[in-house]
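Please go through this protein, sequence plus structure tokens, and consider how the sequence yields the tokens. Keep your notes short.
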Amino acid sequence: MDNNKNPASIAALWMVGALLSFMTMAIAGRELSDELNTFQILFFRSVIGLFVIACLLQRNGWQQVRTPAISKHLFRNLAHYGGQFGWFYGLAFIPLAQVFAIEFTVPVWTALLAVFFLGEKLTVPRMIAIGLGIVGMLIILRPGLEVMNPAALAVLGGAICYAISHIKTKQLAHIDTPLCILFYMTVIQLPLGLIPALYDWKTPSLDAWPWILLVGLTAMSAHYCLTRAMKLIDATVVVSMDFLRLPLIAAVGFLFYGEPLEWAVLIGALVMLIGNYISNRAEKRKLN
């Protein structure tokens, strides 16, 4: 099918791939958490990612891994590793839907941090997005009404780390190729997972290996599909479709893990989605 004739349909298929990848990665992470600690999961994720990236570099040329910005790569990946740790740690202790909902605060922190790191202006639409994002987060976490789960705070901290990583990725995108960025991500994060994992190492059973492979492969496919979709349709549409991750993973949690369907989580995430939608629409008008 010609992408130029029906980009929306093609983008929808890419988004289906992204949604399936994100949900599969979450399920695989949950299954592995019964046997492996978070550091081991992240280590094996990096090993598989490095193998995939090495195959792509073998085809496209290793010369692109030369970079004048190794310190920026190091900073980016320390932050990205923190984001991954918070996300996978949360998968083991709180409902899947809550993990995904808290992750939706990433655009809020990215907008705030972009003011300080990139000197971007805090426009009215962005302020609305930030405000609604904070309201949505409070609805989900409900501070004061109940004791907040430390795992939920870990996911929230991970979301802030992801935001820092996004900011540094935006800077590196003007310096290095995407493959170069992904290469240093796996190379730097591999020892970050291995060294602490060695203190409580557990050799994976045969049953764990399919889940390990799924974590590594879907981590790559999720972001690849999301990027392809964004090249075909507006970010506002992608954000709206990406929101389907939440009710879908809530259904998975309910059906397979007996997790309750919490309306506060869905309402809070919807509030954040509205904020992101308003901000993205304003950015589109500005570009036009």
